[in-house]
Amino acid sequence: MLSLLELTGSINMIGYAIATIGPALGVAWIFASVINGTARQPEARGAMMSTAFIGFAVVEALAIIGIALAFVLN
């Protein structure tokens, strides 16, 4: 059995794994809001989807920056 002092490897990857919770929740909330808005006003679906894709891109950019930093700081 390994003790904590015997563990080796990069703690950056563990940090990134925990940090992916933020973007995952962000994407879920963005598209849940679009689904809710579409259910309330179906005619506004186009405007909501274009805004949702911009938000999705921003949230995913945060995740990509996080993985890049995890590899760079290794």
Automatic annotation (TrEMBL):
Compartments annotated for it: namely: Cell membrane; Membrane
Q: Pfam families in the record, alphabetically?
A: ATP-synt_C
Q: Where are the transmembrane segments?
A: 13-35, 47-73
Single GO term (MF): lipid binding
Q: What PROSITE patterns does its record include?
A: ATPASE_C (PS00605)
Q: Which InterPro entries match?
A: ATP_synth_csu_bac/chlpt, ATP_synth_F0_csu, ATP_synth_F0_csu_DDCD_BS, ATP_synth_F0_csu_sf, ATPase_proteolipid_c-like_dom, F/V-ATP_Csub_sf
Similarity comment text for this entry: Belongs to the ATPase C chain family.
Q: What is this protein called?
A: ATP synthase subunit c
Give the organism the record lists: Tessaracoccus rhinocerotis
Which gene name does the record give?
A: atpE
